[in-house]
Amino acid sequence: MSGFDKVVTSYEQAMAGLEDNMTVIAGGFGLCGIPEGLIAQIKKMGTTGLTIVSNNAGVDGFGLGILLEDRQIKKMVASYVGENELFEKQLLNGELEVELTPQGTLAEKIRAGGAGIPAFFTATGFGTPVGEGKEVREFNGRSYILEPSITGDFALVKGWKADRFGNVVYRQTAQNFNPMAATAGKITVVEVEEIVEPGALDPNHIHTPGIYVDRVIKGTFEKRIEQRTVRS
């Protein structure tokens, strides 16, 4: 990389600096819009003790699920155990620390972290196990709990297109948690389907400005379907 050019040509370069016991924020929703190649690189590196912040942990054998196989994840901050049997098993056996967080709250925790907001009040979770031990305040006659924001050592993002300056466009529902994640990492790595030259993207259509992005890599994607139902 030189100057404003954020493009790297190998996954080793893309994930350089990732160490044991770091916190990684990963975009995606189920298997939609997940940074498949970056996750595979973590698997290859064998990094352990990780705290992963993501909506869920993929499925068995794909997505973040592959990091559970060798117990590379110490803690999951997630909204949904999902279709991942290994995730469920490790949670119930006490092998994996899991902080289940309402989905909207999780999105806001990441967004707030990226915006430099240390915490915020939300009514979601008040009076449930989610709110246990958290500060409560009343606003306009309604009770709210204090939720701390989230930032990560790395943020892993899946985009559709990016230019060499790191400006990113997402495609349809694959946008999901990715824009929030992109703002909240000390090092933000974006894996995209296509890299274009600066000026090729319509500024009005850019979702993540390059100021948030440290590295961009062109990946290849399987785009596996989580639940496929067909007629017999």
In words, what does this structure look like?
This protein has one domain (11-218): Glutaconate Coenzyme A-transferase (3-Layer(aba) Sandwich), CATH 3.40.1080. The strands form two sheets. Strands 1, 2, 3, 4, 8, 9, 10 and 11 form an eight-stranded mixed sheet that branches. With 232 residues, the protein is of the alpha/beta class. The N and C termini lie far apart (52 Å). The protein has helices at 11-14, 36-45, 65-69, 85-92, 103-115, 178-183; strands at residues 23-26, 50-53, 73-78, 97-100, 119-122, 136-139, 142-148, 152-163, 168-169, 185-196, 215-218.
**Beta strand %:** 25-35%
Pick out the low-confidence regions: none
CATH class assignment: Alpha Beta
Question: What string, H for helix and E for strand, traces the elements in order?
Answer: HEHEHEHEHEEEEEHEE
Helix content: 10-25%
CATH architecture tag: 3-Layer(aba) Sandwich
Average of the residue pLDDT scores: 95
Corresponding CATH superfamily: Glutaconate Coenzyme A-transferase
Estimate the global geometry from the Cα principal axes: globular
Cα gyration radius (Å) = 18 Å
Q: Work out the count of structural domains.
A: 1
Structural class: alpha/beta
Spatial separation of the terminal alpha carbons: 52 Å
The CATH topology comes to Glutaconate Coenzyme A-transferase
The count of β-strands is 11
Q: In DSSP terms, counting alpha (H) and pi (I) runs of 4 or more, how many helices? A: 6
Largest sheet report: 8 strands, mixed
